[in-house]
Write a structure and sequence with these properties.
Bound molecules: protoporphyrin IX containing FE
Number of helices: 12
Order of helices and strands: HHHHHHHHHHHH
Distance between the termini: 43 Å
Shape: globular
Strand content: under 5%
Oligomer: single chain
Radius of gyration: 19 Å
Length: about 250
């Protein structure tokens, strides 16, 4: 990577975020769940689990965004029509979990921790919300598009896109152009150097929360005999499959 900016000038926030999260981004891509996913090794059970987690995460993220939409620390990044995923995820939940999905979607402990952090930020430190919105939405507009094609093929899903509404942004014509606009808006946010540093740290935390989620889901799948591929029999547990259902996955708090 080249660094066109002179060291004495403050870098754009968008560049700082990209640079600071490069290492955790690689870590996220290399999480076992994501590595398997990229190889097309994704099962219905695994996909349903990760989508359920994302449902809870986006409900919380977008609730906090709505709470702070008029606050200048977030307002320039408020793009509900273009970005918000809650309605799409509700459609996907109905596809994957059926009409009574509200009672059926699992809520895992790592998902709970991610949601807790989003709520804490939205309510107590809204100036850090940009870090969470950046991590999820710019990710969805980048790698997310690759993952959509993979899952469509791996799970033999209808070309209508049913069950994958999350990955489709009907109000964004060009993901690249929108990412540019989003970056330029991030760069208009006024913040002190201290807050800026906290935003950068929070983006790394956001990536780690995602990585922990993947690690937990992988663990749940590894324990589940129905999810074993022939080459992957370590950790078989005859009674563990019941854990991958609804309330059993609730955190302890
Ligand atoms: C298999 C997993 C993943 C793949 C293949 C992937 C791939 C990509 C690609 C190709 C880009 C575009 C890079 C560019 O435009 O220069 C990107 C950007 C990005 N990804 Fe991922 N990604 C993955 C996982 C994740 C995860 C888990 C997150 C966070 C939850 C994430 C967050 C981001 C963000 C925030 C960006 C925008 C970086 C920026 O331009 O500032 N990615 N990803």
């Amino acid at each position: 990577m080249d660094h066109p900016q002179c060291h004495s000038l403050p870098q754009d926030l968008s560049d700082s975020l990209k640079e600071a999260t490069m290492e955790v981004h690689t870590q996220a891509e290399n999480a076992e769940f994501m590595r398997n996913f990229q190889k097309g090794q994704v099962t219905r059970k695994g996909f349903k689990l990760v989508m359920a987690s994302l449902y809870h995460v986006y409900v919380a993220l977008e609730e906090e965004i709505e709470r702070n939409k008029d606050d200048p620390v977030f307002a320039p990044l408020y793009f509900p029509e273009e970005l918000h995923r809650r309605a799409a995820l509700e459609q996907d939940m109905a596809f994957w979990y059926g009409p009574r999905w509200q009672e059926a979607v699992p809520y895992t402990a790592a998902t709970h921790r991610y949601v807790d952090r989003l709520q804490q930020v939205g309510r107590r430190e809204p100036e850090l919300l940009v870090a969470h919105a950046y991590t999820r939405y710019l990710g969805d507009l980048s790698g997310g598009q690759i993952l959509k094609k993979i899952v469509q093929k791996a799970l033999d899903l209808p070309s209508s896109g049913e069950g994958l509404a999350f990955f489709t942004f009907p109000n964004i014509a060009s993901a690249n152009k929108f990412k540019q606009l989003y970056r330029s808006r991030m760069n208009t946010l006024e913040m002190t150097p201290e807050v800026r540093q906290k935003v950068i740290e929070e983006a790394k935390t956001a990536f780690l929360l995602n990585i922990q989620l993947f690690e937990e889901l992988q663990e749940l799948l590894t324990q589940d005999p129905e999810d074993q591929r022939p080459s992957q029999t370590a950790g078989l547990h005859p009674h563990a499959s019941s854990q991958v259902q609804g309330e059993d996955l609730l955190g302890s708090h």
